[in-house]
Every structure is written in structure tokens, then in C-alpha cells.
Design a protein that fits this description.
The chain is mostly helical and 195 residues long. The chain is built from nine helices and no strands. The longest helix has 27 residues.
Length: 195
């Protein structure tokens, strides 16, 4: 009779995700993952497959947990300009409270792997597309409310916010200081809204 697994998939996936997030894909060894996850090699392969499969599962986990949590306020039916202002202020706060300077796992992965791993590139692109759609919905409501002063196409303005969010997260890894990050957030939004 096979022994039951002695770990919760969610918990060990949390640890794997955090390890990849801190170190990147290439710099993370199987041994490091096993130590962080607190499981044996056989359990890792039985549950997740190889390192690449575990990384893909970690990206999905990050999307379902970190991204879903952080973007939840923007997905409220009445979210508009004020929600975007609050969101970008929160991005500055997360960045300043990230003592490890991990940045964003999606942005880190795009920089590290997208040009050489089509599967990972597609997965990251799908996550970015969801974020862009969330921004587009908020911008559409802002336009309906008379708050959006920029006359550009909504999908392009949503992409503009996505690109600036990515840049903000990278900048935070290099210059984690409040005035710099808040200035970047403010100028991003001032392009779209009257301040």
C-alpha cells in the first residue's frame, strides 16, 4: 500500500513559488527547492513533475494568489479612477515593504526566460493579458464617469498602464525609495486623468 502524502500541495507550492520568486528559475536548484518545500525528491516528481513543470505550477499559483489578491480592488463593479490611484499607491507600498527586492515574479520571468522558453512566454503573456483587461475595464468605467481625460483607445491606455506597472516594479528593485516610486506612479496616472 502506498504511503499517503504528508504535505499539503498548496503549502509546498507556496514555498516553491517564493523560492523561484527570490532566486529566479536558473539559479534555483532542485536541492534548494526540496529544502524550501520540505519534501523528498520522489514527492516533488510524483506531485509536480520536473523543475520546469513545478515552475509553471508556481506561475499559476502566483497568478491565483498574489495577482488575484492585489488586483481584487480593481475588479469591483464600481472601480474607476480612485481605485487606480489607490492601486498604484499600493504598488509603491508593496515595493517598499519587499525587503528581498523580489519585484514581480511575472516581470522577472519575462526578463529571464521569455526569449528562450515559448511555453513560459505564453503563460506570462496570458497573465499580463488578464491584467491589461482588468485595467481596460476600470478605464472604461472611468470614461463613462467622465474621469478619464485622455481620448486614446481604451485597450492602448490599458497597455500603457501595464507597461508602466512593469517598469515601476523593476525600478523598485533598483531604487526602492518612496519619492521616486510615487513620482513614477503619479506621472503615469496624470497622463490619463486630471490631477
Amino acid at each position: 500500500m502506498a504511503r499517503p502524502k504528508e504535505f499539503k500541495r498548496h503549502d509546498v507550492l507556496n514555498q516553491a513559488t517564493l523560492t523561484f520568486w527570490r532566486q529566479g528559475y536558473e539559479a534555483t536548484s532542485i536541492r534548494t527547492l526540496l529544502e524550501a518545500m520540505g519534501i523528498h525528491r520522489g514527492s516533488l516528481y510524483d506531485t509536480f513533475g520536473d523543475k520546469h513543470s513545478l515552475f509553471k505550477a508556481s506561475l499559476e499559483h502566483y497568478d491565483r494568489t498574489v495577482i488575484a489578491h492585489n488586483f481584487a480592488p480593481l475588479q469591483q463593479p464600481d472601480a474607476s479612477r480612485g481605485a487606480l490611484v489607490d492601486f498604484f499607491k499600493s504598488v509603491v507600498d508593496w515595493s517598499l515593504n519587499d525587503g528581498d527586492r523580489k519585484g514581480c515574479l511575472l516581470v522577472n520571468t519575462a526578463a529571464e526566460l521569455a526569449s528562450q522558453d515559448p511555453d513560459i512566454a505564453q503563460q506570462v503573456a496570458a497573465s499580463f493579458e488578464k491584467i491589461e483587461q482588468t485595467f481596460a475595464a476600470v478605464l472604461w468605467r472611468s470614461r463613462q464617469n467622465g474621469e478619464l481625460t485622455h481620448s486614446g483607445e481604451i485597450h492602448l491606455l490599458a497597455r500603457y498602464l501595464l507597461v508602466n506597472l512593469q517598469g515601476l516594479r523593476i525600478t523598485a528593485k533598483i531604487q526602492p525609495n518612496q519619492p521616486t516610486l510615487q513620482d513614477l506612479a503619479d506621472i503615469t496616472l496624470s497622463t490619463l486623468f486630471s490631477y
